[in-house]
Structures are given as structure tokens and as C-alpha cells.
Specification:
By secondary structure, the chain is an alpha+beta fold. The chain has helices at 12-31, 35-52, 57-64, 72-82, 94-100, 194-200, 204-214; strands at residues 10-11, 86-87, 123-127, 132-139, 142-150, 155-158, 165-176, 183-191. It has seven helices and eight strands. The strands form two sheets. Strands 3, 4, 5, 6, 7 and 8 form a six-stranded antiparallel sheet that branches. It has a two-stranded parallel ribbon with strand order 1-2. Strand 7 (165-176) and strand 8 (183-191) form a beta hairpin. The protein is elongated. 24% of the residues are buried. Bound molecules: zinc ion. The site of zinc ion has 8 residues, from strand 8 and helix 6.
């Protein structure tokens, strides 16, 4: 029988969710020998994954390998295999970015070649000289962009995008208000480091809602 090719079926956030759940299992193995504790952790992981992923039986089979993993090297191998099923962030070119921020004079552009699109749910880069942070995200199937001021002060807090406790900075965006010449400001604490923020994201809906909220 011909081997069935499985198309990518995991969002970047799904992949991170699985990675985080796998780490819970590995943590259990490294801290206890009690089989019941490990079983309980696996049960919690199973609930978390079933609640958040909707998979068919073939896809489910691939994920279920997770429950046989007992050490970090097996874990790495599993994640490496899983990576081929990840739907990366939309392809972005420098000309896309220039057209999204066409009103911006002296636009600083990111080094796209150094970005792993299989690990990001949104694209972001900083212009350190002007304290501006640029963000590209998907909204209703389209690439959208927003820029804002990123405060230089770094504090500990919960990030409004990934919901993790980390080093955060105040990010302030300004959008046009409903009345001509009025503006609305949105200030949110988000991870200072966009790369680690992306790695934390296990819920894409939260990300979509965040950008929906700050661009309205
Ligand atoms: Zn974050």
C-alpha cells in the first residue's frame, strides 16, 4: 500500500502547546520515580491536548508517540519529526513590509533570513534608535502591521500576548479614533523579547484577540 502523505496540520501555537506538554512529562520523569505521579501528569497532558487540538485519527497517532517518551533526547527527536507538520507563519518579503508601513519614513527593516517562520505566530522587530516596535500579524487571512512605542523600562509581569510571566515592557500603540483627528491609545505590557514571546505562545486565539483589540 502506498504510504499516505500527511499534510502540515499544526499551527505554530499548536506545536508550542505540544512542546510545553511534553516538557511537563519530562519534568515528571526527572523529578519522580512514582509511576502513579507520571500517569497523573500524562492524564493532565492528555486533557490539555484533547481540549485544544482537533485532530483526525492519523494526526492523533503521530501525537500519541509523546506518551512513550521518557527522556530529553527522545523528546528532541519527537519534536524534530513533528516540525514537518507545522504550518509556518505566512511568507513575508521586504516589499510586503515596506508596503504595510508605507507611510513610515526611514523604516528600519528586520533581517528576514534569520527568522524561523515555523516558530512565530507574529513577526516583530525593534528600531532601538527610535524605541519603535513593529509587529506583523495575520487578520482575516491578510497580513497587517502595527507599530508602537516600546518603553525602555523592563519589569516582571504577565505578557498580554503569550500570557506568560516574563520580562515585559509597556507597548503603546495609537490608532485613529471614530471622530476625525482623534486618536486612541492602547498600552499593554508585552514580552520585551519578541522571540521568546513567540516561543511561549500556545494559544493562537489569544494572539488574534490581542491584535484585534489594539487595532480597533
Ligand atoms: Zn509574551
Amino acid at each position: 500500500m502506498e504510504k499516505q502523505t500527511i499534510q502540515p496540520f499544526l499551527s505554530v501555537a499548536n506545536y508550542h502547546l505540544i512542546e510545553q506538554q511534553l516538557n511537563k512529562i519530562l519534568n515528571a520523569y526527572s523529578t519522580t520515580k512514582d509511576k502513579n505521579v507520571i500517569l497523573a501528569v500524562k492524564g493532565l497532558v492528555d486533557t490539555e491536548l484533547t481540549e485544544n487540538l482537533s485532530l483526525d485519527s492519523t494526526q492523533l497517532n503521530l501525537i500519541e508517540d509523546l506518551y512513550h517518551i521518557t527522556d530529553y533526547s527522545q523528546g528532541e527527536l519527537f519534536l524534530e519529526t513533528l516540525k514537518q507538520y507545522v504550518i509556518p507563519f505566512r511568507k513575508v518579503t521586504l516589499s510586503n513590509l515596506k508596503s504595510i508601513f508605507k507611510k513610515q519614513k526611514k523604516l528600519k527593516l528586520p533581517k528576514l533570513e534569520s527568522i524561523d517562520f515555523q516558530h512565530i505566530c507574529y513577526l516583530t522587530w525593534d528600531d532601538v534608535s527610535t524605541h519603535q516596535k513593529y509587529v506583523i500579524f495575520e487578520q482575516q487571512g491578510k497580513l497587517k502591521g502595527v507599530k508602537g512605542n516600546k518603553d525602555t523600562k523592563v519589569v516582571k509581569g504577565i505578557c498580554a500576548i503569550c500570557n506568560h510571566h516574563s520580562d515585559v515592557s509597556l507597548f503603546t500603540t495609537t490608532v485613529k479614533g471614530p471622530v476625525v483627528d482623534t486618536f486612541k491609545k492602547h498600552s499593554n505590557y508585552i514580552c520585551t523579547d519578541g522571540e521568546s514571546c513567540n516561543k511561549n505562545i500556545a494559544d493562537l486565539e489569544r494572539v488574534t484577540n490581542f491584535f484585534e483589540r489594539i487595532t480597533r
